[in-house]
User: Which sequence fits this backbone?
């Protein structure tokens, strides 16, 4: 694709999200979401592969239906109250409809079915955009409307997402599908806390984006899309293989790494709010996710792959890809936990 | 519930139901989406007329412009799907099942 076209598409991808961030009117927020969707479609379908085209079609149908439902619900609200402001969403049907539509947009549990196939059909850089940048605009809306949303609905969405995100990833061997399910599980953690402490949602989203970017960039460096390929990565980049194993543990939320921070703060907040049952279910469902991260970890570092290795030459070749971004994200993924007091002070 | 309110609500709901449950052809899904957007156009235009708010008068046209873009993208995807899968039946979109 020509660099001019790429520039236009990436800038309108950014501008659509910025428009949603800035707007207080539902119509403008909807326009931002539409610009965002329309800008990423050519990026997704650029390789003309049947899988890419199919993923684009599925993504388009899900996003278009969600965007239309958002606008429909805000129109109902406007007919009932005469108000278009995002904060003034009071009509109960409209609130529920918008919550479900935004859940469909980001891929939360009862309406998550488009997410793993779409991720599977994309190449790794586009998958990275899909798993990180595309979540920002809907989450800006979710955070703004969470105080008026139905509390039980948000909790149910969160619990189902954490559970299904862990459950669905168990039997996968494709890395992008595993990452899609991991994304669903992390989004569950974000949505469950959105009604109590929206700042924690933002913190979790930022840390999720850092960790997922590190994982995707590692997989891109190794050109790995299956666990099988990952098992051979020791001959390509031994040090990055070791670091990637720790990145996966951080994604699973183990204590000395960054991924523990949002889980810790969210569980603490849920316990403070008097919801020990919810907190227990969330913490136990995180074990399901941890299982498939550990399986990747096992295949990468703890066992010797039964595959034949054609040559050991890759070990001695200099890597030609640019790894600056990967370095930054990976260090942030591994070492941010000591900043927890700072995060708590800012919240 | 006024008749106007009922008509655009039921039009949108029927469109959404068609999109969700009548999964045969991609073209019919796109038509359902277009029907949903048109019912939203009517809703916005009538809201503006009922409240006589002239500041809102650009909104239905903006909505129509965006839905036209969306329909264009949908038709482009229809062509792409027909070229890669040989048909526009939604059953054929099964390469990426879990």
Assistant:
């Amino acid at each position: 694709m020509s660099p001019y076209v790429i520039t236009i598409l990436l800038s309108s991808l950014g501008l659509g999200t910025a428009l949603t961030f800035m707007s207080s009117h539902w119509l403008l927020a909807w326009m931002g979401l539409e610009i965002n969707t329309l800008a990423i479609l050519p990026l997704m379908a650029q390789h003309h592969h049947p899988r890419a085209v199919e993923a684009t079609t599925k993504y388009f149908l899900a996003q278009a239906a969600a965007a239309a439902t958002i606008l429909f619900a805000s129109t109902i609200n406007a007919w009932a109250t005469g108000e278009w402001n995002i904060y003034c969403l009071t009509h109960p049907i409209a609130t529920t409809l918008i919550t479900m539509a935004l859940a469909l947009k980001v891929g939360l549990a009862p309406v998550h079915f488009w997410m793993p196939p779409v991720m599977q059909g994309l190449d790794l850089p586009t998958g990275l955009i899909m798993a990180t940048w595309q979540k920002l605009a809907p989450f800006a809306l979710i955070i703004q409307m969470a105080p008026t949303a139905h509390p039980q609905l948000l909790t149910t969405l969160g619990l189902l997402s954490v559970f299904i995100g862990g459950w669905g990833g168990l039997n996968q061997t494709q890395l992008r599908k595993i990452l899609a399910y991991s994304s669903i599980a992390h989004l569950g953690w974000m949505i469950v806390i959105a009604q109590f402490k929206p700042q924690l949602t933002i913190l979790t989203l930022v840390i999720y984006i850092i960790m997922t970017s590190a994982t995707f960039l590692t997989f891109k460096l190794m050109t790995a899309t299956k666990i099988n390929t990952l098992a051979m990565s020791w001959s390509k980049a031994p040090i990055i293989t070791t670091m990637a194993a720790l990145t996966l543990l951080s994604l699973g939320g183990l204590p000395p790494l960054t991924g523990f921070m949002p889980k810790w703060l969210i569980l603490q907040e849920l316990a403070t709010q008097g919801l020990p049952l919810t907190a227990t279910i969330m913490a136990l469902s995180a074990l399901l996710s941890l299982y498939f991260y550990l399986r990747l970890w096992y295949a990468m570092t703890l066992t010797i792959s039964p595959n034949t290795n054609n040559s050991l030459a890759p070990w001695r070749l200099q890597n030609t890809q640019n790894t600056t971004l990967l370095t930054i994200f990976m260090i942030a993924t591994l070492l941010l936990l000591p900043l927890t007091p700072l995060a708590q002070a800012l919240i | 519930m006024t008749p106007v309110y009922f008509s655009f609500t039921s039009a949108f709901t029927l469109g959404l139901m068609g999109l969700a449950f009548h999964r045969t052809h991609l073209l019919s899904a796109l038509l359902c989406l277009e029907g949903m957007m048109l019912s939203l156009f009517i809703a916005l235009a009538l809201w503006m007329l009922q409240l006589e708010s002239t500041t809102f008068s650009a909104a239905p046209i903006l909505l129509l412009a965006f839905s036209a873009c969306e329909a264009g993208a949908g038709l482009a995807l229809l062509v792409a799907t027909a070229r890669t899968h040989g048909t526009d039946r939604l059953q054929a979109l099964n390469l990426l099942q879990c």
